From TrEMBL:
Pfam families: TTL (PF03133). It comes from the Eukaryota. InterPro entries: TTL/TTLL_fam (IPR004344). PROSITE patterns: TTL (PS51221). It comes from Pterocles gutturalis. PANTHER family: TUBULIN POLYGLUTAMYLASE, TUBULIN POLYGLUTAMYLASE TTLL11. GO terms for molecular function: ATP binding; tubulin binding; tubulin-glutamic acid ligase activity. This is Tubulin polyglutamylase TTLL11. The lineage of its organism: Eukaryota, Metazoa, Chordata, Craniata, Vertebrata. GO terms for cellular component: ciliary basal body. Transmembrane segments: none annotated. Gene3D superfamilies: ATP-grasp fold, B domain (3.30.470.20).
């Protein structure tokens, strides 16, 4: 680690959070300029919705969404219109703060009037989305998938998707949202950072059980039940590629302003965390994209009040070590010389 920078040039610079050094003239950096801004919830929503307007059938993997506060009147009007045309429609919506992470500030509502407009939404913009009420359940629990995607270059566009990911489980059996259970985060929200505090969270030493498992173990299970796992993978790959295509124009603007063509500068690559939810019919839906997915391979265990120790997590290790190893192999600067 070089907390105060480094004078000698490196082949690969591995930054913690974002691309921030102006004196790197060669080598490769593991962050793209502007990526953190481009995958924020509002920017991502805007980019995908632009593509939905142009290619509605190709971009039907992202829930209907509105940006608050600016689209609040539109949100109210559209919901009212949809309810009038179909009185049996009983939707649920999920409100996500733009800059929030790890489940912070997310809540569910049944009606636009339930949005907490008091001051906070003005100072804290958010995205409100139609909540997916019929997710695929495993062991009666809702779960999402964290997939790791390597954006190796923008020009030419080069994307690699890791063959395995993490399945992160809720810790209470799922029921469709009602006014009574809307606030039960351990039932509705799959965020690891929330569920790890549930009394039902299971830290497993096995990749097939517990509250965090490998995605491959879920695929095995689905395959044994007769599901078309090949089609599921091809749908996921298509979702990833189309999402990155939607983000590319803005990423290029940031890239060209930080690393102008023709001047010496580094090239960039980045590992992204795609959070995907499977619907009951096995259709993958994009929840969000994370610019800095956690690469920790251990979890904290509280031995006694306030005393923690780090315990290895076999599931994280199995998936993340492979992601970093293969990323380094793919961007290996020595390869050209051999």
């Amino acid at each position: 680690q070089f907390p105060f920078g480094r004078r000698l040039p490196c082949d690969i610079y591995w930054h913690g959070v974002s691309f921030h050094e102006n004196d790197i003239f060669s080598g490769q950096v593991n962050k793209f300029p502007g990526m953190t801004e481009v995958v924020r919830k509002i920017t991502l929503s805007r980019a995908v919705r632009t593509m939905q307007d142009l290619f509605p059938l190709e971009y039907n993997f992202y829930p209907r969404s509105w940006i608050l506060p600016e689209e609040f009147p539109l949100f109210v009007a559209e919901v009212r219109m949809m309810k009038d045309s179909d009185p049996s429609w009983k939707p649920t919506f999920i409100v996500k703060p733009d800059g929030g992470c790890q489940g912070d500030g997310i809540y569910l509502i049944k009606d636009p009037s339930d949005i907490r407009l008091t001051g906070s939404i003005q100072s804290r913009p958010a995205v409100v989305q139609e909540y997916i009420c019929k997710p695929l359940l495993v062991d009666k629990l809702k779960f999402d998938i964290r997939l790791y995607v390597l954006l190796k270059s923008l020009e030419p566009l080069e994307i690699y998707i890791a063959k395995d990911g993490l399945s992160r489980f809720c810790t209470e059996p799922y029921q469709e949202p009602t006014l009574k259970n809307l606030h039960q985060v351990f039932m509705h929200l799959t965020n690891y950072s929330l569920n790890v505090h549930s009394g039902n969270f299971i830290h497993s030493d096995n990749v097939n059980t517990g509250s965090k498992r490998t995605f491959s173990s879920i695929l095995c299970r689905l395959s044994s039940q007769g599901a078309d796992v090949k089609k599921l993978w091809s749908d996921i790959i298509s979702l990833v590629i189309k999402t990155i295509i939607a983000l590319t124009p803005e990423l290029k603007v940031y890239y060209q302003s930080d690393i102008p063509a023709g001047k010496p500068g580094p090239t960039c690559f980045q590992i992204l965390g795609f959070d995907i939810l499977l619907m009951k019919n096995l259709k993958p839906m994009l929840l969000e994209v994370n610019a800095n997915p956690s690469m920790r391979i251990e979890h904290e265990q509280e031995l006694s009040p306030g005393v923690f120790e780090n315990v290895p997590s076999p599931v994280d290790e199995e998936v993340k070590v492979a992601v970093i190893r293969d990323t380094l192999r793919l961007v290996d600067p020595q390869k050209k010389k051999r």
